[in-house]
Amino acid sequence: MAQTITNSVMTMVKEAKKQIEEIPPEEAIKLHGNPDIVLVDIRDPRELERDGKVPGAFHATRGMLEFWIDPASPYFKPVFAEDKKFVFFCAGAMRSALAAKTAQDMGLRPVAHILGGFKGWKEAGGPVEAYVKKPAKA
Length: 138
Known about the structure:
- By secondary structure, the protein is an alpha/beta fold.
- It has one domain: 3-Layer(aba) Sandwich (Oxidized Rhodanese, domain 1).
- Helices cover 36% and strands 14% of the residues.
- The protein has helices at 9-19, 25-31, 45-51, 65-69, 95-106, 117-123; strands spanning 21-23, 37-41, 58-59, 85-89, 111-114.
- A five-stranded parallel β-sheet has the order 1-5-4-2-3.
- The model has no long low-confidence stretch (mean pLDDT 96).
C-alpha cells in the first residue's frame, strides 16, 4: 500500500513562517557584521562550493542543526550558547523557515530567517565570497 502524506512540506513551511520572524534580505545585509547577530547558513556543503558563502556566516547543515543547538548533545556547538540573535538562511528560504521554527521550539531565542534565502541575499547585493573546502584530516 502506498504512503499517504497528510502534511505537505509547503504547509509546514507556511505554518512555520506564521510563528517566526522574517527579515527581508536588505535588512539582513544591514545586520551583517553586527557582533550581536549570528548568520547561520544551513545549506549543504555542495551548495556552498557551487554558489559561494556569506563572509562570517556560521555554517550548520540542516541535518545536524538540532544536535548542534542542544547543549546536552555530544555534537553541541558553543556558538548556540551565545547571547545573540540567530538569523538562519538556506538557498531559497524554505529550509531556513523550518530551521528557525525548530530552533525556536528548542528554546533558542531570538531567531529569525532571511526572506528569499541566499538567493535573495545575493540579489539584494549582499557580500558573497568563494567557499574554500577544508582539507581532510589525516
